[in-house]
Predict the structure.
Amino acid sequence: MHKRFRFGSRMAALATATAALVMGLWLSAGTTVVGQAPSYVAPRLPGTSHPDLSGIWQAFTTANWDIQDHGADPGPFPRLLGVWGAQPPGRGVVEGNEIPYLPEAVAKKQLNLEHRLTVDPDNVNTVGDPEAKCYLPGVPRATYMPFPFQIIQSTDKVVIAYQFASASRTIPLSRSTEAPVDSWMGWSNGHWDGDTLVVDVTGFHDLSWFDRAGNYHSDALHVVERYTPMSPYHLRYEATIEDPKVFTRPWTISLPLYRRIEQDVRLLEFKCVDLAEAYVYGSLVDTEGGAR
Amino acid sequence: MRHRLLGAGLPTVVIAMMGMASVSVAGQAPGSGQADYTAPRTPWGDPDLQGMWDTRTYTPFERPAEFGTREFMTEEEAAERERLGLRRIVSDDDDDAIAEDLIQQDVRRYARSDAPDDGRPGFRIAGAEYNAFWSADPTSPKLSLRTSQIIDPADGQMPSLTRDALMTWEAREQARSTRSQADDWEDRGLSERCITRNGLPGEMLGSGQQPLKEIVQTPGYVSIVMPYGYVRIIPVHQDDQAPLGAAIRQWNGDSRGRWEDDTLVVETANFKNTVKNVVPAHGGPFGGSAHVHYYPGTGDTFRLTERFRRIDAETLEYRYTVDDPNVFVSPWSTVNYFTLDQWAVEGNQDRLFEYACHEHNYGMVNAIRAARADRQWALDEAAREAAIRERELQEKWEQLRAWERSNQSGR
């Protein structure tokens, strides 16, 4: 095989067929939608009429620190970590930069922020940022964590495997089913809206966060994600977030996803449990009694 | 978890189905398949292995002594093993025996569900199945008449561990001898720590709690959704991609695949070699039967080769070969048969449910606290477990010495 970027062979295989289609669309494209690349038509997954979104993707934003606008900040442990632990500045990914918390829901966000690196062995999964403990990141946070993820698209099912914590989701496309019980990553049902993969996610419990700033949700969370190909190298990602227990109205985040095009790119393993155990359980063994 | 039962809904249905769950021995000896069978193709032309596969097996990992050199048992022998209670799922952990016991407890409690509550906890449950909910599976794995999963060596036994491996094992026991059951988290097994169940290849075989694997394909990749919280992503025929360097070690290694006719061949290396856990109860990299939980770590020289092939419309033949010269005196190979899960085929289950083990691991908190509350007790328990392992270690030394006597030039 010749050297190529990861998407190369599939692109090449479909190039001829697609080129004709693209030319046709160029000629017929009367209007353009702001922010989209109207001339781009993604290659189809063979056997389907849908674009193939398979590949290794990654967000390049600082939204995992804070999905709203945020300035540079020394972070929680400047004396310990120097600039390693500093928060980089970033523009938010929330449309309008406002998260419409119910008045009574604001205090908890603030509390989360203050205790984001608190570990309470009696409440391991209700206090502190789940990310620090290597807990499943939830949706949409999994998408914009600073780790790649891989989309494996088949004809009637999509699997998304995230590097962080080896999280994953299976997204059936043919039929919607209901969550049997609440979970961290929710219950996903997918369908196509033109060339956009729409994923409706419910069945969350209230334990995951949106970011390190403590933005949160309840078990009434309902996320509708939209993945739209913008170029061979980009997907537009949008997620509408609805949670009447916490927010006054639905709100939307959007950000581009970038294809990882390195020749040897792989989704490496970041099963981080053993990296987090000292953090989660350390206080228990620091007490007198046991050997360490 | 076993999502199937959520779909089944009413506990009465569950109980009824459990009652029917006797397995027919009826002449099933999967393995031959249909000689003229051709696997279906994906639209992009690859053999199509997709689906929800029941990966449990009743076949003993190593051949029981009574079968001598015979590769297959008779149907009468299979029926007798069932009568003696010897036939149970042996594939990925010994929790299955516990699970079966819990199921029977729940059955008894459920039978008392209309009785007056006498106040004893657990005396009765009224419609709220708990343990059976996690473990019971109304179906049974397909029965093979094979006498062992191991087909090479021909005696059906796992080869001897090497001298180095046994010395590593001993050193671990020595290091562990002053530690209690839970001086800290590393004294617990990898399974309890929610890191791996028993690693590859053992995790490829299902248990009563986690029977299923789902295969999903796209051009250039075969993915296997594992029930233990990760997806195996296998690039296929991506030979232009450089192998991982030796510095990158992963719990589940790094897999590369290729098609050989209708067979998916997967080679996996780069396994983690820094397991500090002195006794990975449940966490030995070579699962497969109830007694192989204590083996020393591997990684540097472990190469796993797997072969997946559809042999008829509902059967996936799964073979693997373990080659790890630091640990075993010779390579060894197995065969198993996965069955297309009819519950899923009928549209009742469209995915595996989230694992989320570490996220709710209060068991670890409690284990560490308990070992502090009564350290002497925790030390005594650790010593009791060590004595069990010591017996197995001595058996392994005897096996090695016997092998050395018959092979003057071992590796």
Observations:
- Chain A touches chain B through 60 residues (CB under 8 Å).
- Confidence is low (pLDDT under 50) at residues 1-34, 288-292 of chain A.
